[in-house]
Amino acid sequence: MHYGGDYNPEQWPEETWHEDVRLMQQAGVTMVSLGIFAWSRIQPAEGVFDFAWLDTVIDLLHEGGIAVDLATATASPPPWATTAYPQMLPQDENGATYWPGSRQQFAPASPEYRRLAAELVTALANRYAKHPAVVMWHVNNEYGCHLNYDYSDNAAVAFRAWLAGKYTTIDALNSAWGTDFWSQRYTDFGQIVPPRKAPYSRNPAGELDFKRYTSDTLLSLYLMEKNIIRGAGATQPVTTNFMGAFPPADYWRWAQEMDVITDDCYPDPNDPESFRIAAFARDLMRSLKPDTPWLLMEQATNALNWRPTNAPKSPGQMAALSMQSIARGADGILFFQWRQSRAGSEKFHSAMYPHAGTRTRTWREVVQLGAELAALPQLAVGSRDARVALVFDWENWWAISNPDHPVVLDYLELVQRWYASIHRQHIQVDFVMPESDLSGYTVVVAPHLYLLTEAGAANLIAFAAAGGDLLVTAFSDVVDENDAFRPGGYLTQLGPSLGIWLEDFGALVAPAGTSNTGSSAGENGVPVAIAATLGQVYAPLDGPTGTITGTLLAEEIHLEGAELLGSFSGGRLDEQPAFTVNAVGAGRAYYLATIPDAAGCETVTSYVFEVAGVEPVYAGLPATVEAARRGDTVVLINHGGSAVEIDAIDLDPFAYRFITDDVEA
Ligand code: GLA
Q1: What is the CATH T-level fold of the domain 388-612, as seen in this structure?
Q2: One of 225, 298, 365, 481 is an active-site residue; which one?
Q3: Cis peptide bond prior to 653, omega within 30° of 0
């Protein structure tokens, strides 16, 4: 169980380093991430390295019994580098340069950046590969953060090469992108530019490929550094810190290259539901590499500095969110950062050792958490405790985010809505891709899979045929991997198994205040709500009945063998099918022809779970109490502001411990 945080000793004089080690020992710190932004101190000029200070710090930490997650320091090229090689600077879609003076000022495809980063990492890896303090390598920092996409000339050259590698011939690209639309036909790869500012909508397949290129290019930087580290003989695990569900990097693909998954997570204390979104990130991280415990690489002890309002955490909240991570598969709790900065943009950001010192509540909680973590028993490694899987797919996210659709859909927000509905029921869930191994799950919830590959569709159908229960929802199986319709209509792959066909999507006006309000919101007058009545016509079990509110889409579907579970009531589709189920081999395939609100997601999933016989981790808990299982350990966390009473009988026969003061056995 690791405990610690980012350590930036270059911001402090040497006397402070000694104090730091002493205080770290008091707090129970076991590991620090060292030197993440120290490039300009490690390499003051091209070809000149200063390792003396870093040697001293690493030796001090080692003598103090504190392990080092050594950073490669490549996330912020020094001013000498960007001055000598200004062509390494990235550009936005308007061609405006991102100038130095902050961090992440590099174009991922820049040959100059790559050469300088490689030289730095080579020097670091050669020097510290065998140092006994170094237990892990921290490559770069939050790849793609701040600067999600680079549109510079470096990007143009690299994007063309990536496309030529993918398509080989320009005709193949033309065919995949459908470039006969709007006279976009290319005769040479050299004519292609990144999706820079254009008069109107750009080619959607090109947009999609640019997202794939960006994820691959960032990953290639990580792999460049990892290979250098391995080439120097280092055997420690290598990682780079993820940011939950982060659009520019397909973490499913990246996870294969990580020795250990690490994540940075900053739930907003102002949002009483943010613990559920944090749980989403934890479950995603566990699912990316289920057999290896992940690490919470960064969180805040208390307030942040980068939201408009940066509320402090409540007493105990930091411990609750830490234990949430552990319950959901983490074997380490680390923070940004160890010692609060005196200067710079992040001086108001909380830290393990606050600016106001050891008299603070933050410090007391940090020390207490260190002791609690040290006292934890060995927890299961590789938890495969969920019977429910929720599909979350980056390729689909990129494609569904393209413009010019029937309605603007915020895929992440929608998947989080489905996740939260499952979380409120205290049901354990893993994340999967459409193509993942689904054996072992009882229910797969597959929301809004607009882009669905042949392999993904076949896999989902095979899951149901083998006895699983599959829930498919509106705006699924619409396009192929080139963001083009498949011949024959919509739901061409899943339709026969769902026992329906889809005639039209039927956009509704987005509800006020949602993130889905597109440019046409308001033009159609007041929002239209629809209601799907469950169990009205036929239900295999005495499932919940009632109404749900659909939003955004009310699809016009037709039964072709499916049984009706609910109909639209009111509106233009009054009494038309809205919720269906079809027998598929030994299993069932549900289709919901709308996008429910939060309560509707819960009604639908609880119905599907009840039919499938899926049980909660722990029954009868209030919604603010979270339940998660890790192997034979059940963790209950009260995220609410007041004490709750629960019935402990249900805990038998699991090993258990209570982790907040609010809960009494
Ligand atoms: C990110 C970065 C850190 C720091 C924190 C502040 O996670 O990786 O360097 O800036 O944000 O919350």
Answers
A1: Rossmann fold (3.40.50)
A2: 298
A3: yes
